[in-house]
Amino acid sequence: MQWKPRLKIYQGSNRKNTFNPETFEGRSYGHWLYVTKIKGKVIFNDYSYSVTTNGHQGEMRAFLRETLKINLNKVIFVNQRDSLTYGISLNYHYGVLALAEVRLKLPKRKDAFYKEQKAIIKDMTKQIATLKKLGAKSDVKLSVLRTQVKESELRRIERQREKAKIAREKRNAVVTEFKSQYESTDAVVI
């Protein structure tokens, strides 16, 4: 990104990706705020809003790391469709947390699956606590979200089972047809 002294901002190669060092704001197309500082912490919204914005985000990561020498491991990444102009939303984090909690209660899964869900719960809980300290809010109730996520996950599992059942029936039909062809003839299978 190049410094534009007259505008007092850095601009990306297409001039649609900007960074204002005075306000510490990174914007895509001038309106979608995706990098800012809240209470001294760098917040980076890595939601893939569009292919172009995704490119802007990659350019901004490189700019923060190489030009401003900001350690990206210290940056707090959020994933929300809305611009950071209105603050940080916890909806995404609560959704991931609720899904991991529901999946943790599912029967007949491998140990690695349960370990992964526990790690997600631990990570999301930590991120939510950090984001709450920065003033993040959610416009959904966690109890309502858990119910919705559970119902959605159970429907997804049922669809998955139905697809597996249909695939098994097709496979069994092919095997049965194959066997019946060879049983009805005097052919020898070698």
Overview of this structure, please?
Strand 5 and strand 6 form a beta hairpin. Helix 2 crosses helix 4. The protein is of the alpha+beta class. The model has no long low-confidence stretch (mean pLDDT 81). Strands 1-2-3-4-5-6-7 form a 7-stranded mixed beta sheet, covered by helices on one side. The protein has 2 domains: 84 residues, no CATH class; 94 residues, no CATH class. It contains 4 helices and 7 strands.
What's the quick description here?
The chain has about 190 residues and is of the alpha+beta class. The protein has helices at about 50-65, 90-105, 110-135, 140-185; strands spanning about 1-5, 10, 15-20, 25-30, 30-40, 40-45, 75-80.
Summarize the topology.
Layout: E1 2-4, E2 9-11, E3 17-20, E4 25-28, E5 32-38, E6 41-45, H1 51-67, E7 76-78, H2 91-104, H3 111-133, H4 142-184
Parallel strand pairs: 6-7
Antiparallel strand pairs: 1-2, 2-3, 3-4, 4-5, 5-6
Helix pairs in contact: 2-3, 2-4
Mean pLDDT: 81
The coarse silhouette is: elongated
Oligomerization state: single chain
N/C terminus separation = 69 Å
Largest sheet: 7 strands, mixed
Tell me the helix content: 40-55%
Number of E strands: 7
Radius of gyration: 25 Å
Strand content: 15-25%
Number of helices: 4
Structural class: alpha+beta
Question: Strands of the biggest beta sheet: in what spatial order?
Answer: 1-2-3-4-5-6-7
- The number of distinct structural domains comes to 2
What low-confidence regions span 5 or more consecutive residues with pLDDT below 50? Answer: none
The string of secondary-structure elements, in order, is EEEEEEHEHHH
